Amino acid sequence: WAPFFRLIESRTLPSVRYQGFTADVGGSIAMPATAPSVRAAAEQVVAWQETPGVSAVEISGFSSTADALGVVRGTRFDLRLQLPPSAFAASSASAVPY
Q1: Each residue's pLDDT tens digit, 62-76
Q2: Is 35 in contact with 77 (CB distance < 8 Å)?
Q3: Residue 91's Cα: distance from chain center in Å?
């Protein structure tokens, strides 16, 4: 799992936070996330779309919280990624090089 966690650390924007993640043996990853703005959430999605080895990126459950003046104070979204199963391989020789 070390290559997978290095990948998350290297591709996550400093302002984005993940509340957790689930993964399956097929390489599907689901991570509920928060960002300070819609723009930061969109930039995070683009960062994952441009990541080698990531074959699909989907976003759902997108919602924003605004203050009394209508200024967005936070955005929540569910991110789903598809990685090759080798990204979780126990052997570093078979893992995807991130």
Answers
A1: 898 988 998 888 999
A2: yes
A3: 24
* Residue among 12, 67, 16 nearest 40 (CA): 16
- Strand pairing category for 17-18 and 22-23: unpaired
pLDDT digits (tens, 9 = 90+) for 15-40: 999 999 998 888 899 999 999 998 99
Question: Do you know the residue count of the chain?
Answer: 98
Residue 70: which region, alpha, beta or left (left: phi > 0; alpha: psi -120 to 50)? left
CA distance 35 to 74: 6
Q: Which residues contact 29 (CB under 8 A, 6 or more apart)?
A: 21, 22, 23, 80, 81, 82, 83
Collapsed DSSP state (helix, strand, coil) of residue 60: strand
Other C-beta atoms lying within 10 Å of the C-beta of residue 38:
13
Per-residue tokens: 61: 């459950």
